[in-house]
């Protein structure tokens, strides 16, 4: 990495780490009960027979704020029935919010970049007032507060599910869409059921859940009025993304993400079980107990080759079948997509994103792609929010997008500037 890019990357990582300080602990001296020990997360008897999106339990909660004051919003958590990759019943939680005053414009399903496998990293836990400071939740709070201030109701699902499965075919989309179904059925949000216009949004790791929601919606939840999906810092295709992380400044994403991936795919688990050294097993076990910020800060320039008996690239090649279905399903999204990335992103290679966009466009997906020439990974997550919300508002209001696919390379994303 060139010296200038390395310096920029270190600045960006410092921004992520600095943003983790403070807001989660405001207003509470006692730590919250973690999901693995909180009975709220356990579904009631007979839940498996309920329809996807059925609310199994609910409770009011207080979501943290970036200011000393609590969020100026009403918030609840909903435990709901959903579906795993293999079509089996699963239960997970979404946090739903609405502004305390005014009529909401519509519903946004916001997928945070959890990027971790541990249950205590789930949005339903880390976004609550009083949760310990173990997650870069400030980036998500920025998005949530802007959505609330512009009059949106929000669903923030634990889209990785109870096993911390960041990457799996279809399942992230099922969890997002059933979270939307649950939100529409929850009377205190004041929505109009399946007539509610809905948008989905997610940045970086959150783009994975958002892209799958757009892909599976036509078949899995055709009744939902999904008017658009915004994918920022999109990480497709996944296999090459993991390879570029290895040995780099952000290689700590690997021990953070891999444990959940191994739980989701027996083939991947078997391959790692075959080739991990004792030190490698300890690395994966430790990564499985921490959230992404801690993993990234502790494991810069980690080389997985040092923890395997074969090179990491060779292991990835052996389990290529496990990765083939992780980025694209058989159904092309029908809802308009906004895909935006930083040209000089220090974590994600935009040329890979360009190739993924071209692949979807060739299949008929309606995509507006924006390539930002000024920002980097973390700064774009913040600076692009007003423009993204303007795009979402146009979709919620039923305003059309240009037909087909368009690509814009801009100096900086701005509302109405693409």
Report on this structure.
The structure is a single chain. The protein is an alpha/beta fold and 418 residues long. The chain folds into 2 domains: 10-237 and 334-410, Rossmann fold, CATH 3.40.50.1820; 246-324, 434 Repressor (Amino-terminal Domain) (Orthogonal Bundle), CATH 1.10.260. The chain is 37% helix and 17% strand. The chain contains 15 helices and 10 strands. The protein has helices spanning 3-18, 123-126, 137-149, 171-185, 206-220, 238-245, 253-264, 266-275, 278-287, 292-298, 312-318, 320-324, 350-362, 377-383, 385-396, and strands at 55-61, 73-83, 89-99, 107-111, 153-157, 197-203, 225-232, 337-342, 367-372, 405-410. Strands 1-2-3-5-4-6-7-8-9-10 form a 10-stranded mixed β-sheet, with helices on both faces. The longest helix is centred in the first third of the chain and has 16 residues, at 3-18. It is globular. The relative contact order is 0.13. The model is unreliable at 1-29 (pLDDT under 50).
Summed up:
The protein is an alpha/beta fold. It is 37% helix and 17% strand. It is globular, with a radius of gyration of 20 Å.
Q: At CATH's second level, what is the architecture of the largest domain?
A: 3-Layer(aba) Sandwich
- Work out the number of β strands: 10
Overall pLDDT score: 89
Provide a count of the helices: 15
Low-confidence stretches: 1-29
Structural class: alpha/beta
Q: Strand count, sense and closure of the main sheet?
A: 10 strands, mixed
Whole-number count of domains: 2
In the CATH scheme, the class of the largest domain would be: Alpha Beta
Secondary structure: helix percent = 25-40%
Order of helices and strands: HEEEEHHEHEHEHHHHHHHEHEHHE
Radius of gyration in whole Å, from Cα?
20 Å
Describe the strand arrangement of the main beta sheet, using strand numbers.
1-2-3-5-4-6-7-8-9-10
Strand content: 15-25%
What form results from the Cα inertia axes?
globular
- Considering the protein shown, what is the CATH homologous superfamily of the largest domain? Alpha/Beta hydrolase fold, catalytic domain
CATH topology name of the largest domain, in short, is Rossmann fold
Distance between the ends? 31 Å
